[in-house]
Write a structure and sequence with these properties.
There is one protein chain. By secondary structure, this protein is an all-alpha fold. It has helices at residues 4-9, 51-72, 88-109, 116-131, 138-147, 150-158, 164-178, 184-190, 196-244, 250-263, 276-282, 285-288, 296-306, 325-357, 360-373, 381-402, 410-422, 429-448, 450-455, 465-497. Helix 13 (296-306) crosses helix 20. The protein is extended and about 90 Å long. The chain starts with a helix and ends in a 14-residue tail after the last helix.
Length: 511
């Protein structure tokens, strides 16, 4: 029976591939948590803010969150919000909207027509159109002001002479001029609507989309400027929050204190303490030979890695990383998925040999199967791995047959499925080793940089090099930005955690 642990632990430098290009960061929809929303500890009474101070704090957090999201997520953009049709909120909104448009219809059909709601709508339309104009479009701005002169329109309405169809046609022509090419078809469809109420309703909907397009255009335009000044901007905004809430860094201090304790070498009086030899073997030379650990930078890196632990969502989260909490939880989920995926692939390769695994198509097929069958691994691990064991075993048998090789014996087949099903157990040795190796690789990426780490890729993980490189780029880039923004605060906290004589650095360096 193949020894999986030896397979995982042995060096695999002969299989190292070329450098992996930096992948694109996928867009993410994220809810940013307020700095003042974290749960207070029972021993401390929460600071009471006035309504004005609370509104100002929320405003500062919102501005900081939006700016941060634009910088760290290059695919960040606004999109149309569509409520589920059967949801309570969706039904409520539909009822209110229908009541409003029905009321407008009654007013326009009354004798004489009542233009009260129509004037309010036209005023809003005018404001939206003006907001879509660029600063240099003065001639068009003057034209809109003249065509939608609210005082003049009010006088026409009082005399029953307000020409709603004519105004709607002018608005549509202006929308066709201002809209993005993607909205051309929507504006064209509006021109075929004859009912004035439905037309106004459609105009408002498309104008909302055009406003969203303008905001996304502004985001794209501002991104280079924000990237250039993001560190100073985010630090200044955070300092404003800290000035208002002096104890804002409590959770950050606890987080760094725990990280320092995690990497503090055992005292010389207890050289045989549990785990000391394991850690010495696991650490690479650049870490094991450093007698000055823990340094402030290494403590910070350990803190970053601790955020990828599965129980991180149950702990108090550092205030300096609250805006990235969901992003980090998604990375932690990816790390768990990669651990399971790699374990499956290594077990499968130990039974089928390198013949099948030299085929990229076969490996990709097993990856797709494993990813699809382990989507619900967290809630149903045994069931998920039972399905994986059956399907992977079948694929290996078919692969061996297609290459004219001998099929697995019934004994080996049973052993294969058994080892795959054992991956569902928390104490599974293969998963434990793989998880340690992935975390060590991410730590190396923080310390040595992505390029050097990819050139010295760890053995046993070569089958997921592309996926792990993707995770590494996202993690390192996010943590590098965080370190640049908050390094002065981290340095000040670490001065009180690490005795100066013990620390190898006096401040936290920027990557």
């Amino acid at each position: 029976m193949p020894n999986i642990e030896e397979t995982v632990l042995q060096s695999d430098s002969s299989e190292a591939e070329g450098e992996v290009q930096k992948p694109k960061t996928p867009g993410q929809s994220q809810e940013n948590k307020s700095f003042c929303s974290d749960s207070h500890r029972p021993e401390r009474q929460p600071e009471v803010l006035s309504v004005t101070e609370l509104i100002e704090t929320i405003s500062k957090v919102s501005k900081l969150s939006i700016a941060h999201e634009i910088v760290v997520n290059k695919d960040f953009y606004l999109e149309e919000s569509v409520l589920p049709p059967n949801s309570l909120e969706g039904r409520f909104v539909d009822t209110v909207y229908k009541a409003f448009w029905d009321h407008l219809k009654e007013q326009l059909l009354s004798t004489p027509p009542d233009f009260t709601c129509a004037l309010k709508l036209l005023k809003e339309v005018k404001e939206i159109l003006l907001s879509l104009l660029l600063p240099r479009q003065n001639r068009l701005r003057n034209e809109v002001e003249e065509a939608l002169d609210m005082d003049l329109l009010k006088q026409e309405a009082e005399h029953g002479a307000l020409d709603v169809p004519h105004l709607s046609n002018y608005i549509l022509n202006l929308m066709a001029l201002l809209c993005a090419p993607a909205r051309d078809e929507a504006v064209r469809k509006l021109k075929s609507i004859t009912d004035p109420v439905q037309l106004l309703r459609g105009i408002f909907h498309v104008l909302g989309l055009m406003k969203m397009d303008m905001v996304n255009y502004t985001i794209r335009s501002l991104r280079p400027y924000l990237k250039e000044h993001s560190v100073q901007y985010e630090r200044a905004k955070f300092q404003e929050l800290l000035d208002r809430q002096p104890n804002l860094l409590e959770c950050t201090t606890k987080w760094l204190t725990k990280a320092a304790a995690d990497i503090t070498p055992p005292s010389s009086s207890s050289p045989d303490s549990p785990g000391s030899s394991t850690m010495a073997c696991a650490l690479p030379n650049w870490a094991a030979d450093n007698s000055e650990l823990p340094s402030p930078t290494m403590v910070l890196y350990q803190g970053y890695l601790n955020l990828l632990l599965s129980d991180s969502d149950k702990e108090e989260f550092p205030e300096t990383l609250l805006m990235d909490r969901i992003r980090l939880q998604e990375m932690e989920s990816q790390l768990r998925q990669l651990t399971i995926l790699t374990s499956v692939l290594l077990v499968a390769r130990s039974f089928s040999g390198n013949v099948l695994f030299n085929s990229p198509e076969f490996v990709d097929k097993l990856k797709c199967i494993t990813k699809a069958l382990t989507e619900e691994f967290n809630s149903r691990p045994e069931e998920a791995m039972l399905s994986v064991s059956e399907q992977v075993s079948l694929e290996i048998q078919q692969g061996l047959k297609s290459m004219g090789l001998s099929a697995l014996s019934s004994k080996n087949t049973a052993s294969l499925t058994g080892q795959l099903q054992n991956i569902a157990k928390k104490e599974n040795r293969v998963c434990t080793i793989i998880d340690q190796r992935i975390r060590l690789f991410l730590k190396c990426c923080l310390v040595r940089g992505m390029q050097e780490s990819l050139l010295d890729f760890p053995g046993g993980l070569i089958l997921i090099k592309g996926e792990l490189a993707d995770l590494g780029w996202k993690f390192v880039n996010l943590m590098r930005h965080n370190q640049q923004v908050y390094s002065p605060y981290y340095a000040e906290i670490l001065k009180n955690i690490i005795p100066p004589a013990q620390a190898g650095e006096t401040e936290v360096e920027c990557l």
